[in-house]
């Protein structure tokens, strides 16, 4: 009797098996054959699941971002103020805990810019919108709790874009240590202006 393969799980397994190799060498230095070897499968099997090595990074980014969302939700839930929640939300950009996802995310962003494919762009748009909606929910909760002035909601798009912008600037200039300080100082300054005195 033929063994039934869960193709969705197999695809995830292949991508996850390649994670360390991608992080060590970078996608541009790898071949599908090297990635297949790392996943302990044949090159032909790899092509049954992925059309290119770029698609492996796309799958890996999808898996890691879903895992990251769960971890971040748990961490944010433990915070008691909106200021603390936003600092935790922003921690993706600079903490050691999220380093692997940041590296994969950078490669994914580079792929999206250099070789845009519809599904990658749609995934990126959906992911960004999902995180932005969550960001706004945190701010709205702060307004509802009487912590923040309602005007902060009008600043939400700029605040969110600034986080990504600082991250990309930091990645290009290799100043990640400075990023935490800049991000937290921005949040503190904004909250000093927008917080309602208790």
Topology, pairings included?
Blueprint (H helix, E strand, L loop, with lengths): L6 H19 L6 H7 L4 H7 L3 H25 L4 H9 L8 H16 L3 H27 L11 H18 L2 H19 L4
How would you describe what is shown here?
It is a single chain. The protein is an all-alpha fold. The chain has a single domain (53-194), classed as Tetracycline Repressor, domain 2, CATH 1.10.357.10. The protein is built from 9 helices and no strands. Helix 4 (53-77) packs antiparallel against helix 5 and helix 4 (53-77) packs across helix 6. The protein is elongated and about 65 Å long. It starts with 6 loop residues before the first helix and ends with a helix. The model has no long low-confidence stretch (mean pLDDT 88).
List keywords for this structure.
198 residues; single chain; elongated; Tetracycline Repressor, domain 2; mainly alpha
Just give the CATH class: Mainly Alpha
CATH architecture, by name, is Orthogonal Bundle
- Write down how many β-strands occur, each being a DSSP E stretch of 2 or more residues: 0
Q: State which percent range the strand residues make up.
A: under 5%
Number of domains: 1
Provide a compact summary of the structure:
This protein is an all-alpha fold. 74% of the residues lie in helices and 0% in strands.
